Every structure is written in C-alpha cells, then in structure tokens.
Amino acid sequence: MEVYNAEGLVLVEDHIEAAEPDLDYDDVVYHGDAEFEGHIVGLPQKSCTHQLRYNSDIFEGAGLPTPGEIYWDEGAEAWNWERFIEMGKEITKDLDGDDQPDQYFFDGMGGTLILSTIRSAGGEIFDEQITKCILTQDEAKEGIRFIGDLVVEYGIQPPPEIKAGELGITFTTGRIAVGGATTCDSVRDLRAGHELPFKWDFVVPPAGSAGVRVWGDTDQITISSSSKHVDEAFEWMVYRSSREAWEDTYGKGIMMAFSNGPTRWSIFESKAFTEPLGDIDMEMIKEGYKQTIPNPFVPRCPQPYRVIFTVMTTEVDNVLRGAKSVDQAAADMCELIDQVLEEGA
C-alpha cells in the first residue's frame, strides 16, 4: 500500500494486454491481490490456501465418513458447523481412563482460520473502506462464539491450559483428527522420508450460516518504478508465474509443489503439481481456491499481520480460556484494531 501510494510500482496492465494471447490473464489466480484502484501492479510467484487436513485412519476407525467424503458425496452444505461438532463428540476420547481426553477432534485455529470462520458466519474484520473494525457486529460474534464453543461448550479441542503439544497431542502424532493446514506448506509431509504414519487429506473449513469461506493469497512479483529494464522484468514476471516455469524446474528435479501453490489455474492439471502430491485430493485443493472470496485487505491495511496474528488470536485465546465473553473479546479486538488503523492513517 505504501509503495503504491508513493508511486514506487510500475503499473503493468498495458504490458498484460500487449502480451495477450500468449499471457492468458484469466488463467492467473487471485487477480485482486495485485490490483490497486483499478490498476494491476504484479503477477503471482506463489499462492496458498489455508484449509484443514484430516487423519483418514481415525475416521475409518470410528466408522465415520471422512470430511472429504461428506463434502463430495453430500455437498458443501453438509460439511457444516453442526456436522463438525457432531463428529467431534464421537472422536474426542479418553483412551487411558484418566478422565482427561487424550485424543481430540480438532487442534484449533490460527489467525487466518479464525478470519475464515468469522466470514463463514457472514462477518468481517473491517468495513468496506477499511476505516473501522466491525467485529462487534452479530455475524462476526457468531463466528467467534463457534470457535469458543469448540473448547468451552463441547470440549472437542484441547483447552489452552493443558499444553497439548507438550503432551504429544498433535495432528502429526495421530492424536488429533482434524488440524489447520496450508496447501503450500503442509504438503511437505508427503516427501519421501518425511511421511506421517497415517493417511491424511485436505478439506475446506466447514460451512457456517454464510457458507464455506477459505483464506487464500499470493506473493506478488512487482517492478520498481526506478527500473531501467521494465520490459525485461515484465518478461521474467510472466515466465516465473507460468506453468512453463513449474514444468521446467520439475524437469530439473525441483518440486515447487512442496512449497508453492499454483499461480495459474492450468497448473492444477500439470504433472509438476500433481505427481509430487501423489494421492492427495487435488480437486479439494482446487476447491479451496474456488471457495476463496478475494478480499485483499492485507496490502491495504497497516500492520495486517498484527491484526490477524496478534490481536485476533490473543482475544480468541481469551475466549477459549474463559477469561472473556465473546462480547468483551470482540469489543477489545475492535478497540485495538481501530488503533492500528489510526496509526496508519
């Protein structure tokens, strides 16, 4: 935002238009991440969606369909908050008889999953102009309440005070059925010699009253306005974001699928993406991209990661601990987020 406002970026929409049809801009994922005031400033060099992943073995052992099977066989509306809680009650168990669960259904939410859950209830962080926090609205509080109930009401997620990770109660140890995951990082657990000791797969977060919402974003390649080689830089941008780049590097033994999400829709069909990921549900990964509603406030908000990963996660944690009500946590979030907006004004 600051670099754009300072006219430090080259606007590339004319270059994109001149490059067509060799560059099919409709094939590029998440246009909104590179657009400011109707101008295009970049092309993506990687992308990611923040979904969930589930331990297929746990669901099979419980005699339950997997979240992926529910989504594909019964429809997106069937993979919802109510089903999530229902399955959570069946899978969360005390295995050693000490009156304390040591197998849980869910491992909890980081900042982006908190946000997508709020959005799945119809809520949002900011007003449309990004001038004030609106997390105190009923829709947003509905999402925060659902997150809190997973611990406080239903007990299907470890409470913060038990330090589940220190007890070995984690997704990777096989003692949690569903965990937060990113489609550009979690896939590293598929590499030869690094596989988890159970079968797992991706699923989009469950639907709230407003439907399924997924966080997705890109890292953008841009050109400095001081560049003396704009045409050459743009040519590199086009190549680096292309299916050709993926396949060239894959042919040389570099598997971008283990760290980079597709930058073009056509890459989802490329062996450079599909072969390294093996039996993972590629269509579910793609579904996450389809279910992402572009709302690229991150490059347009001062200190966005302070908002998502500090303010929101801290206050949600207060709800999980029972230290604050949903109303109080939402009010405190907005007070702190409005301070961030004022500091960047």
Describe what this molecule looks like in 3D:
The structure is a single chain. This protein has helices spanning 2-5, 13-19, 56-61, 67-74, 81-91, 111-120, 138-152, 230-240, 243-251, 271-277, 282-290, 304-320, 326-344, and strands spanning 35-36, 39-40, 42-55, 104-106, 176-182, 200-203, 215-222. It has 345 residues and is of the alpha+beta class. It has 2 domains: 2-44 and 216-276, Periplasmic binding protein-like II (D-Maltodextrin-Binding Protein, domain 2, 3-Layer(aba) Sandwich), CATH 3.40.190.10; 49-215 and 297-344, D-Maltodextrin-Binding Protein, domain 2 (3-Layer(aba) Sandwich). Strands 3, 4, 5, 6 and 7 form a 5-stranded mixed β-sheet that branches. Strands 1-2 form a two-stranded antiparallel ribbon. A hairpin with a 2-residue loop joins strand 1 and strand 2 (39-40). Helix 6 (111-120) crosses helix 7.
Q: How many alpha or pi helices?
A: 13
**What would CATH call the architecture of the largest domain?**
3-Layer(aba) Sandwich
Major pleated sheet = 5 strands, mixed
The structural domain count equals: 2
SSE class: alpha+beta
The number of strands is 7
CATH topology of the largest domain: D-Maltodextrin-Binding Protein, domain 2
Low-confidence stretches are none
Distance between the first and last residues' Cα: 12 Å
In CATH's first tier, which class of the largest domain applies? Alpha Beta
Radius of gyration: 21 Å
Principal-axes geometry comes out as: globular
| Element pattern in H and E | HHEEEHHHEHHEEEHHHHHH
What name goes with the CATH superfamily of the largest domain?
Periplasmic binding protein-like II
